[in-house]
Predict the structure.
Amino acid sequence: MVHIVTVQAVVTADEFDREPTAAALDAIECEMPVIEANIELLDAQIITLDRIPTELDARRIRRAHRRVLAARRTLANTAATQVPGVGA
């Protein structure tokens, strides 16, 4: 009797299966205020999905949107001042 089996690839860790590098974790840490502001904006928008937005909902969304823009501006300004080879 001949057994028919599938050939499996060797189970090894691909490059994408490894833990994040310290540089990647630092980048995430720098972008965390933007991520949190985006989450807050999404929460405010999700609240209004199943109902007509009230004035309070509209203010909450505008406030969250301003926080996203401010966090992005701060991140962009920080990144611009930390260009390698420039300055001190």
Notes: DSSP finds two helices and no strands in the chain.
